[in-house]
């Protein structure tokens, strides 16, 4: 059964569209289970009805015509119960619903299993048999459940592809096609999708038509010629080292590149109006599908050759293509996985939104997007990226939602939100030079998280009182080698000078986890629980010592440097780090630099540190909570995994209780404590943290005006009462709702992300 299942999944994966995928499913499952009927019913989101979409055994004319209500018939029962139903005599069941146009009165045995993807019922897979004496056995039921689970993602992806192309399940025009991810950076953007994809990856090549057929044919013929020459050159070079049968493999490649073979089929698709890369992708996938379905192992292996040949051709087609991408005036950048380098390619002022399949709200691209003020949605695991190129998109970074091909009404709805946001930001500019102080006189320092010089400019314009977290890994990540001491010194001096005399807290190099250096790879099965942060730099003191030396020299004459140690899990790491810092301090003083010993602090981001606050505080000058990682480790949720992103919640009771304990224990021994995670930049989160007693809140610059406005408008007593109320609650979602409600009642509803109620109200209005 396993080989049948693997073959089925491969074939369905390479189907051109949803209908072909469904037809393959019913045909192969019927044959594999040796049953008379196999059918697929899909739940249409527009009507909330199950539609017969494909069948093998029922009357074909019923496909697309038969539909059932959400809980109607046995199909509806399977979907609503979300579990298999296995019956010997289906017509005798009280929920049986007979449709004469299907001809199913001949079949008595019934087995239906739900098709579920990410908790959403997509449809029902059904097999039926004529003999009433046959009951599908446990093995058959288990096989059908396995098939359903394996194919759910493929069906969801195919469904989404059709919807983006403008068609619903019923074949009617689809508008306002939405996809849910996770919020990456707040705000709303309306623009044109530009898909950026990794080189020579056929699977992510976007589907695009072309009007320049001659130009595309010319490009493709040049690629074929170049690949042919490459293969001939390699074959010639290796001729003396290979046996004749091994040499023959090169002849196989060259035969596949003949005009009557693969190139001819690609040329035909280009002539039909498909751009060269898309035509190549379609033909290669078709070849691969045929070879993989063959029983002969030798022929199955030819699929690998075809795929390799396709990559070689694509690589030549893509030479220089990415560099010549045309970026519209309002570009929404779309990719399987966004990188900082991709953001830098877009001309200044033209990037309005970001969409990424991988990543979450706390991945570093999302943090960078928030610093830049670019609305972003991450973790869109089911979205067919290659369909979004050139499409008009709405990016809702508040709700983590995108809309493709929006209607005029939806566009107007989101344009109004954009206008309100712009107006709000302008209104908050007057607060820039005013202190962050509650109405009853409690003062909180508002700091910023930075990594680039552009962050500094934006931070100063928003009234930041210093830097709570300077990510020193950024200068390391934009190089192709470790930066020298002098290069680091220049980076650090810029930051220190810009904020002098206010404090600048520099975190020592924090790589590992989701932060990689191309020239210093760390390959681990579980990088977040592996070699990262202080663990790396203590194992490589030559890196740590150079960095600290550069920091100290950069601080000469300014003396506003603070050093912070990341990923501390035990006291010995602090003591070893302090020993190295003091050593460098004395060496730099001996070199003649007039510097002061900077304050040294630790980041509290590992649960072990939560229970050692007093011991840590005895050895350092301050503590700073990294709430992003602390939340990740407390909840055992990889913050970059969109499949569990909904479990990552900063308002989780365990997270709030840990934050309360940290503040209390730090103050009990007289040490200041701040926080530099994303929770500090959320107006509601900032209120709770201020009530807990945090002395400083560090956030991205874009969040600073809203947080300052809220804190200046309430009393600390009011915030403490709110904190006491929410600490009695046991659900992160209820806590968040409670905080949002308190803010709305206090007159700050305009600072909150537009509620889903607004979107729902719009949808209902549009339908009516």
Automatic annotation (TrEMBL):
Enzyme class: transferase
Name of one Pfam family that matches: GAF
E.C. designation(s): 2.7.3.9
GO-annotated biological processes: phosphoenolpyruvate-dependent sugar phosphotransferase system
One GO cellular component term: cytoplasm
Annotated ranges, domain GAF: 17-165
Major localisation: cytoplasm
Keywords associated with the record: Cytoplasm, Kinase, Magnesium, Metal-binding, Phosphotransferase system, Sugar transport, Transferase, Transport
Cofactors, names only: Mg(2+)
Cited InterPro entries: GAF, GAF-like_dom_sf, PEP-util_enz_mobile_dom, PEP-utilizing_PTS_enzyme, PEP_util_C, PEP_util_CS, Phosphohistidine_dom_sf, PTS_EI-like
Name under which the protein is recorded: phosphoenolpyruvate--protein phosphotransferase
UniProt source species: Marinobacter pelagius
């Amino acid at each position: 059964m396993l080989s049948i299942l693997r073959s089925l999944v491969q074939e369905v994966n390479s189907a051109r569209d949803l209908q072909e995928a469904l037809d393959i499913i019913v045909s192969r499952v019927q044959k594999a289970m040796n049953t008379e009927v196999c059918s697929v019913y899909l739940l249409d989101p527009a009507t909330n009805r199950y539609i017969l979409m494909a069948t093998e055994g029922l009357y074909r004319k019923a496909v697309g015509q038969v539909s059932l209500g959400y809980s109607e018939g046995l199909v509806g029962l399977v979907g609503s119960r979300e579990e298999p139903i296995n019956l010997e005599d289906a017509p005798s069941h009280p929920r049986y619903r007979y449709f004469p146009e299907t001809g199913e009165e001949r079949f008595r045995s019934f087995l239906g299993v739900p098709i579920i993807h990410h908790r959403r019922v997509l449809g029902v897979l059904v097999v039926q048999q004529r003999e009433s004496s046959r009951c599908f056995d446990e093995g058959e039921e288990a096989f059908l459940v396995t098939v359903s689970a394996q194919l759910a993602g493929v069906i969801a992806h195919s469904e989404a592809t059709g919807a983006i192309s403008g068609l619903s399940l019923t074949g009617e025009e689809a508008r306002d096609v939405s996809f849910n991810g996770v919020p990456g950076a707040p705000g709303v953007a309306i623009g044109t999708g530009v898909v950026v994809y990794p080189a020579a990856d056929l699977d992510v090549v976007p589907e695009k038509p072309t009007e320049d057929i001659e130009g595309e044919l010319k490009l493709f013929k040049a690629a074929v010629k170049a690949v042919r020459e490459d293969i001939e050159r390699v074959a010639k070079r290796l001729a003396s080292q290979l046996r004749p049968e091994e040499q023959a493999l090169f002849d196989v490649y060259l035969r596949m590149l003949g005009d009557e073979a693969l190139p001819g089929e690609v040329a035909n698709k280009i002539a039909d109006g498909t751009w060269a890369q898309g035509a190549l992708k379609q033909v290669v996938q078709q070849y691969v599908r045929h070879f993989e379905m063959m029983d002969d192992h030798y022929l199955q292996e030819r699929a690998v050759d075809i795929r390799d040949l396709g990559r070689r051709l694509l690589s030549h087609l893509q030479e220089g293509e990415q560099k010549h991408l045309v970026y519209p005036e309002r570009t929404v950048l779309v990719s399987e996985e966004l990188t900082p380098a991709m953001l830098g390619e877009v001309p200044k002022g033209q990037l309005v939104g970001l969409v990424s399949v991988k990543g979450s709200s706390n991945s570093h691209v999302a943090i960078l997007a928030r610093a830049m003020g670019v609305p972003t949605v991450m973790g869109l695991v089911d979205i067919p990226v290659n369909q979004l190129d050139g499409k008009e998109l709405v990016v809702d970074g508040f709700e983590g939602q995108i809309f493709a091909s929006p209607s005029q009404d939806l566009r107007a709805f989101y344009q109004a939100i954009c206008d309100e946001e712009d107006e709000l930001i302008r209104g908050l500019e007057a607060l820039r030079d005013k202190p962050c102080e509650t109405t009853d006189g409690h003062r909180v320092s508002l700091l910023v998280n930075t990594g680039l010089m552009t962050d500094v400019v934006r931070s100063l314009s928003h009234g930041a009182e210093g830097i709570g977290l300077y990510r020193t890994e950024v200068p390391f990540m934009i190089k192709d080698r470790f930066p020298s001491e002098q290069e680091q010194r220049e980076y650090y001096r810029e930051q220190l000078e810009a904020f002098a005399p206010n404090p600048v807290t520099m975190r020592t190099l924090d790589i590992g986890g989701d932060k990689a250096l191309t020239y210093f790879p760390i390959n681990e099965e579980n990088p977040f629980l592996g070699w990262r942060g202080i663990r790396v730099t203590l194992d490589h003191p030559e890196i740590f010592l150079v960095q600290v030396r550069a920091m100290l020299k950069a601080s000469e004459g300014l003396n506003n440097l603070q050093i912070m140690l990341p990923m501390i899990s035990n006291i010995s790491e602090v003591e070893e780090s302090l020993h190295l810092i003091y050593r460098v301090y004395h060496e730099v003083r001996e070199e003649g630099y007039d510097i002061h010993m900077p304050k040294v602090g630790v980041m509290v981001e590992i649960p072990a540190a939560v229970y050692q606050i007093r011991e840590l505080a005895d050895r350092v000058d301050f503590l700073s909570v990294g709430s992003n990682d602390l939340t990740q480790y407390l909840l055992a949720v990889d913050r970059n995994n969109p499949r569990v992103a909904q479990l990552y919640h900063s308002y989780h009771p365990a997270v709030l209780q840990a934050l309360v304990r940290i503040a209390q224990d730090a103050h009990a021994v007289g040490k200041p404590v701040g926080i530099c995670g994303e929770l500090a930049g959320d107006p509601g989160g900032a209120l709770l943290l201020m009530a807990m007693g945090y002395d400083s809140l560090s956030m991205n610059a874009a969040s600073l005006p809203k947080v300052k406005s809220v804190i200046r408008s309430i009393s600390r007593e009011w915030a403490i009462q709110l904190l006491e109320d929410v600490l009695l609650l046991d659900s992160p979602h209820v806590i968040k709702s409670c905080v949002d409600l308190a803010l709305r009642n206090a007159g700050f509803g305009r600072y909150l992300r537009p509620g889903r109620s607004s979107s729902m109200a719009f949808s209902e209005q549009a339908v009516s």
